[in-house]
Amino acid sequence: MASHPPDCCCTKLQCARLNNGYRGTPSGTDLVINESIQGYLARPKDPDRRHSAIVYLPDIFGIWQNSKLMADAFASHGYTCLVLDLFNGDSVSLNMPHDFDIMGWFAHGSDGKNPHTSQEIDPIVIAGIKYLQAQGATQLAAVGYCIGAKYVIRHYRSGIDCGFIAHPSFVETTELAAITGPLSIAVAEMDDIFTPEKRHESEAILSEIKQPYQINLLSGVGHGFAVRCDLNDTSQRFAKDQAFNQAVAWFDRYILD
Question: Coiled-coil stretches, from where to where (predicted)?
């Protein structure tokens, strides 16, 4: 694999911080795609920029305060941004127990009847891409965090032109080798999932396939920093902001240029 599967750090590392969502009031719109897929849509003020869109593939916490505000932030930079509920209404609770069985949740869902494997998630991502295209998007970027990163990598084949991922998990080497466009990665120094070994393995793959790529390593932060850092910690906030700015700069280069 190009990154390890999700583990305890996905749910435990920053558990205490999850009760403190990013400050602000989301300004986008909740919506439903194909009568079943929940989403959150943030639009830029400039209508001339609405042909450039981002599909936002979240981590296990799905659509919540932080992901909505981040979508709003992408919209403030001129990109229509759609956050998708990848988990069929079964995102992990912000107050999950410390012994939460993340692999059981992926395999079976919270009730044992709602799995979150590629078989279930791929159609959701494709539906989101088609929705944005139907809304007039002709240039499509994608952002993915943790498990969401896997589906950015998988869906260049479905119409993604350019991708940004942070602290990825569950990415297979064959998936990474098959991307067909530019990819930027923000990496946490202290990450048991995207380890230095996996980072170097990914670098080798990206160098071999000759797609434009960028890998930025942020010191002093752990898995999840790009979407759920402690904003009261200046080092973490700086790293989170750097990852966001990295994504915007990458998209400005390869989507708008």
Answer: none
Are 17 and 230 in contact by the 8 Å Cβ rule? The answer is: yes
> Structure pTM?
0.93
Per-residue model confidence as pLDDT tens digits over 34-82: 999 999 999 999 877 778 999 999 999 999 999 999 999 999 999 999 9
Provide the annotated active-site residues. Answer: 146, 191, 223
**SS3 at position 187:** strand
What's the gap between Cα 28 and its chain centre? 18
Task: With CA atoms as reference, report the closest residue to 246 among 222, 218, 221.
Answer: 218
Q: Say how far apart CA 39 and CA 44 lie, in whole Å.
A: 17
Residues 193-214: tens digit of each pLDDT: 999 999 999 999 999 999 999 9
| Rounded Cα–Cα distance for residues 33 and 151 (Å) | 18
Q: Can you tell me the distance from the alpha carbon of 230 to that of 233, in angstroms, rounded to the nearest whole number?
A: 6
The yes or no reply on domain 8-256 and CATH 3.40.50.1820 is: yes
